[in-house]
Amino acid sequence: MTTNVGIKRAYESMQASDGYRVFVDRLWPRGVSKEDLKFDTWCKDLAPSPALRTWFGHKIEHWDEFKANYQTELRAQEQQARMHDVLAAAGKQPVTLVYAAKDPVHNHARVLAEEMSRLAPGKRKTGSK
Length: 129
What we know:
alpha/beta, 5-stranded parallel β-sheet, 4 helices, 5 strands, YeaO-like
């Protein structure tokens, strides 16, 4: 069975098809109450480092360098273990990485979904929900 790793903005409604929802920002999203954001686990440590996040500042001209640096962070042994833990906790459910950034293409959740998919080649795929 193929398990999908997808992404979804924190401002979108939860759907049953989301499966195992993982909030992947270090900071709480503006304007969202703690009662309204539904997730199974909050993995702050899988978000970009504070220095990298601040440097990127959601500036598209920084995207390629941000992506490369974030991939380097995610390929550290500790981060690999965290991603494996999330995938194991989800079991056979789809995994939805929940993020707050406005840009659906240039955001860390997309990079994280690609990296999580890389951990299990042929068994997982990425996409937006």
